[in-house]
Design goal:
Strand content: under 5%
Radius of gyration: 18 Å
Helix content: over 70%
Length: 209
């Protein structure tokens, strides 16, 4: 089995940050009024109230950093699993997670631009940024959650962690993946938190080991 990029304690801490990172992102969407805004015009109207004021900007920044750190931990754990992974699922998984992180960073930048443009009354720029945000965020979400699923399946095969926790991670990731398709978006409210909680629980276990 290959050694993870991170030591046991840094790996544990980084994985533990997964659910808080997701919670911060959900908090940002609530504060920005995006959950109730279905069309682009409604999203622009919601963002135009405060734009990227102190709280939204703080949530975006801290949430993004937390998400990246936690995902690096997930990649490190996947690398540790790859040595005994004959099918290469963990390698595909870490690549998908890496692609998802990269896309998420870009989409977060687009969201910030949209918020600032909406607050300044530049509706055309805000609409364009929101369209780009939606497309890139979808790609980042579907690749990241697919990567998490592949890593969980590998961990189940190798019995690399608590079976119940890893099974919940796999189930949450499967639900989160399905939620990326039209008409099933609300499933993401169950899939992503379940995945995040499971990964954080794995991190806590590693810290206590």
């Amino acid at each position: 089995r290959k050694c993870p990029m991170l030591g046991p304690k840094p790996l544990g801490w980084s994985l533990t940050l997964m659910f808080p990172g997701m919670a911060l992102w959900i908090g940002l969407m609530i504060v920005a009024g995006m959950f109730d805004a279905e069309t682009t015009s409604e999203q622009i109207k919601a963002l135009s109230k405060d734009g990227m004021a102190t709280l939204p900007s703080l949530l975006l920044l801290v949430g993004s950093i937390t998400w990246v750190v936690a995902s690096v931990g997930l990649i490190s754990w996947a690398r540790g699993l790859s040595g005994e992974d004959r099918l290469g699922l963990s390698t595909f998984g870490l690549v998908f997670v890496l692609v998802g992180i990269t896309a998420s960073i870009v989409s977060n930048g687009m969201f910030f631009v949209a918020g600032e443009a909406a607050a300044a009354g530049e509706t055309t720029l805000a609409a364009t940024a929101l369209e780009l945000w939606g497309a890139v965020d979808w790609w980042g979400s579907i690749t990241w959650i697919l990567g998490a699923f592949l890593i969980a399946v590998t961990a189940l095969q190798q019995k690399a962690a608590n079976t119940i926790i890893v099974a919940l991670m796999a189930l949450g990731a499967a639900v989160g993946f399905i939620a990326q398709f039209p008409g099933l978006e609300e499933l993401g409210l169950a899939g992503y938190p379940m995945t995040g909680l499971a990964i954080s629980a794995l991190g806590i276990q590693k810290l206590r080991a």
